[in-house]
Amino acid sequence: MTADDGVSVHETYPSRVLTGPGARHRVPEEAERLGARRVLLISTNSAKTAADDLAARLAGRLAGRFGRPAAHTPVAVTDEAMRTVRDTRADAVVALGGGSAVGLAKALAARTGLPQLAVPTTYAGSEVTPVLGETENGVKTTRRDRSLVPGTVVYDPELTLTMPPGLTRTSALNALAHAVEALWAPDATAVSDALATEAAAGILDALPAVLARPAGLAGRTRLQEAAWLAGLCLAGTSMGLHHRLAHALGGTFGLPHAELHALLLPHVMAFTLPSAPKADARLRRVTGGADPAAVTARIARAHDGPTTLAALGVPRERLRDVAERVAARPHPAPRPVEADAVARLLEGAWLGS
Ligand code: NAD
Predict the structure, then answer these.
(1) 2 in a domain, yes or no?
(2) Could you give the angle at which helices 165-183 and 190-212 cross, rounded to 10 degrees?
(3) pTM of the model
(4) Each residue of 317-347: pLDDT tens digit?
């Protein structure tokens, strides 16, 4: 955070990161490195084939499996998984899947102190952040603690080949949102600026190529690497209006994480970038001078699923309430976050204008 005296602090988190096609096959070795003898493997159905293969490779080191992580880490699901941790006497957790699987592993680590190994299959970035969001009785709370960061991360681009085009597009835009907000964050540093600029360049360059050729491993590799950098931006800087709106809307109406981020981002960029000259200049370097909000809007609107808050089922009459709640918790932002202006932004996102 940049203090009044102009001093800023950059904090990083220790993790060992493996990247590259086939990296997932190193997971048993990495588990051994952690001293794990009884691994609990968390995965979703989407990663079933890879999870079955990993289970076979873990062989005698596999203590049990849990296959029902859910979005926004419901405490009831964590309680159920905790029973599996106890029944299997697990001494490490491996999460194979998107942000939901990684979030559940973090929730288990928060309760047990078990070491975690994350094998992400989307671009959400949670695997490198000290943040855990959990939901109970419809309320989402977030905690931040360096002990939540998985000690080992394995990025295998082959695991992203199964992402359908819709998830590829929206999850990549979710990653872009981390980079964009890092550029206008009050606690941005030279390091976060470099990470965010390279992340944005990688995403905006690789995403169209991946959407045109979803099975192209080179494009998938570049996109995953850019998403890793974006995740580091999320870990290292305070997120602003975009993430606050996504949190408020997602928590209140139970909306799909990546689609919500994707449709909001161009609206928040159009709102903020005119007041954030450094972020605007860095993003224009990436877009070759084109308006970054317009470039992002073109990508977001081509999604084959919901592209407006209306299509996601958000009641129009509740927008004002969300705007007021977000404006009532002021945070340092390039453009003042006033309820009227935020309500207009949300109205635009509702209509898709
Ligand atoms: P997700 O993990 O919920 O996955 C979305 C859907 O895509 C699921 O149905 C999943 O099974 C499927 N899927 C995942 N990978 C796939 C693949 N390779 N091929 C085909 N299908 C696949 O969604 P997400 O966007 O990755 O993560 C969202 C969750 O992560 C939310 O709960 C969010 O709050 C959390 N999150 C946390 C942080 C953090 O720093 N704490 C950061 C980002 C996201």
Answers:
(1) no
(2) 160
(3) 0.97
(4) 999 999 999 999 988 899 999 999 999 999 9
